[in-house]
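Tokens in:
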């Protein structure tokens, strides 16, 4: 069954996470994503953790794609890529600004090859600005946006998140930008450049306290979100509305009190209210706390470990975790599609081996025969 982006072809020149995850999302939506790898494969194929010879890191962000190995440092490899651009809709890259130009494939060259091409550039700090040439990874975005200081506010020191949240946000912005550019091209026939970066994406996570500071000169606007300790674990309580806060205080105090309906945003709460809730939780198990609060229609949840999450029947029923046969590992568990469609279901494909689709893609799209492919292999232009 065709997906929403059936017929759209993406050439992905991306590695690590933010760029490849954007390509993964486009693949889930039905696009044909051709991952252009150097001979030997993209470096994260060896990135830990590794299961039976297969990188979980690579697998998660590159499932469903085709792998074509090109040596883009060679003239013949560049010629092959140029021919592929003419057959593509999107080029997705996450090099530092200027690298595509140095390779001979800046937007002007790409547009000369294909007027409708959309170039999606994912970088640390964007295609312009004082920091444009700096290399960056997720943690730099967390640090420079202020997110790290807010996350560690209650601990008194900056704390980075366990996962690369800035990379994931950036991948979403790259995907949204790509879809908007496709819509513009549908109306006009014109391609364009989509510029997204880690720092811009990270700033969206601190937009309330940043806007508050610029308006008042004061820090604030969002507090931390510490969980509550129970007899046997921790729970998160999000009494964000006035009525919810009132019900929570009625439960914690045993009776409602005037003035206790200020929303307890982030579960912190002023005027000693948190201490009351902490004491109430400490006297009960996690299950008891969640059952009582859910009965009172107050959002709450246990703080779970990864093994507990991996066994959650809700996630399995929604196919957010899927088992898939893998050429190296034999069997892998990969994330499912986060967007559900009633008519055009997302497509979750296997993890490609290095250069698995080189001959097939060049033969089908470019019409290269066996002799042409053999010559390019012998020259080291493809692998």
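Residues out:
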């Amino acid at each position: 069954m065709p997906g929403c982006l059936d017929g759209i072809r993406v050439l992905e020149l991306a590695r690590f996470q933010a760029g490849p995850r954007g390509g993964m999302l486009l693949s889930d939506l039905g696009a044909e994503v051709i991952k252009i790898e150097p001979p030997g494969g993209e470096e994260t194929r060896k990135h830990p953790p590794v299961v039976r010879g297969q990188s979980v890191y690579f697998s998660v962000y590159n499932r469903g794609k085709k792998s074509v190995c090109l040596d883009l440092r060679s003239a013949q490899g560049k010629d092959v890529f140029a021919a592929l651009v003419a057959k593509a809709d999107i080029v997705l890259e996450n090099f530092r600004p200027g690298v595509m130009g140095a390779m001979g494939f800046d937007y002007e060259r790409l547009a000369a090859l294909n007027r409708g091409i959309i170039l999606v550039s994912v970088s640390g700090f964007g295609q312009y600005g004082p920091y444009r040439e700096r290399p960056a990874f997720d943690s730099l975005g967390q640090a420079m946006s202020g997110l790290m200081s807010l996350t560690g506010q209650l601990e008194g020191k900056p704390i980075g998140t366990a996962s690369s949240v800035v990379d994931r946000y950036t991948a979403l912005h790259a995907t949204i930008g790509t879809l908007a550019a496709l819509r513009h091209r549908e109306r006009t026939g014109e391609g364009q450049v989509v510029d997204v970066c880690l720092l811009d994406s990270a700033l969206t996570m601190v937009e309330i306290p940043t806007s508050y500071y610029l308006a008042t000169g004061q820090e604030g606007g969002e507090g931390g979100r510490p969980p509550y300790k129970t007899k046997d674990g921790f729970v998160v309580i999000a009494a964000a509305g006035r009525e919810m806060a009132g019900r929570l205080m009625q439960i914690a105090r045993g009776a409602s009190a005037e003035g206790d309906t200020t929303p307890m945003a982030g579960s912190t709460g002023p005027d000693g209210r948190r201490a009351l809730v902490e004491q109430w939780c400490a006297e009960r198990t996690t299950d008891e706390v969640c059952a009582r609060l859910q009965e009172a229609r107050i959002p709450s949840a246990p703080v779970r470990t990864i093994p507990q999450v991996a066994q959650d029947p809700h996630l399995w029923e929604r196919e957010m975790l899927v088992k898939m046969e893998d050429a190296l590992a034999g069997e892998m568990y990969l994330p499912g599609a986060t967007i559900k469609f009633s008519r055009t279901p997302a497509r979750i494909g296997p993890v490609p081996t290095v250069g698995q689709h080189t001959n097939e893609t060049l033969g089908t799209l470019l019409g290269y025969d066996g002799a042409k492919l053999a010559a390019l292999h012998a020259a080291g232009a493809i692998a």
